[in-house]
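Page 42, continued from yesterday. The earlier attempt failed because a stray header line got pasted into the input along with the sequence. Redoing it now with the clean sequence only.
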Amino acid sequence: MSAARWRKAMNSGAGAAGFDAHSHPVGRVAPAGAPRHTGTGETRPTWERIRDAISPHHIVVLVGLLVFPFVASPFLTFQVAGQSLALGLVALSLMFLAGYGGMVSLAQMTVAGVAGYTLAILGTSSTAISLGWPWPMAILVALAAGTLASVLIGWLSVRTEGIYTIMITLAMGVAFYYLCLQNYTVFNGFQGFQKVHPPMVLGVDWRSPVPFYFLVLSLALLGYFAVKYIARAPFGVALQGIRDNPRRMNALGYNVTAHRVAAYAVAGLIASVGGVLLVWYNGLITPGSVGTSWLINVLVIAVLGGMRHPIGPFLGAIVFVLLQTFAVDVIDRERFNLVIGVAFLAIVLFSPDGLLGLWAHLRARLQGGRSVSTSLR
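This time it went through. Structure tokens are written below.
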């Protein structure tokens, strides 16, 4: 549905379908990031939505991210920050589906794996069955393959809801894992593909800590602001309306299935970018990269950070990677999943909106205490 038809449907159907003057369901809070409307029903210009997506704290965080690799060790730059940003992109795709579309998919690492395997098969590696295509073509086909896989998963799962969607996406992820594990002709079985490294461009080794960090950071920022922009665009607002009340949106003339499949396409592209970066980070891809544990880990990362905010998956990825990296110094490596499980349960029990929700709750309590002390004076 075009933007013009979207505005016409929202304005003409406001009274009959229970929408208020700002095109949000009566009795509900306006979806996060929804565009404000003028009196004529027109949305604000694109540049205004981009301006609103960037706030002062974004600038402060960006400066810190740019300075970080020059003050941190190569280990922290590559192993912690680079890995966290790549994993955050995959978790961001899940946050987009669940937070804005109400669709929890356990197949996002599968989508990332499709892109990663396609890159390894078409590009160069130490495995003889790699085709050695030029890297620009291999990357583009890998992103297209991951997006197409996500569309297929979405087309099969969007007609279900709740636990059924979770089980369908989990079944697809497990099926892809066993396909990679048992197929030697295309996927090289349990050995996978080794030495899959980023290409040398402009004489730069993009797998070195600082270049790789800035590569991942630029793509992570692009994904973050793209999600922020889409959330304020007509498609994003319609998707949030479908999340809240699909029957009402269908009555207004929206194709609910098409919107949900399109959301899977957007999420698939984001996850595919993360999958390519993870292959370059690890230097390899094997069936273990798309195993059941990683399907669950992506969900854990998204929930840890917060499923309602685009920055949440990156915060969750940082916590996950830090625990994965340094928990071995406190407990046995085999008990890492126990630490993650305890942290996951604590977040779910005390802050359903993840670390961001916990921070917002603490900040509200501090502000409340300050206001009380001021009134007593």
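Notes: The chain has one domain: 72-366.
Reminder to self: strip header lines before submitting.
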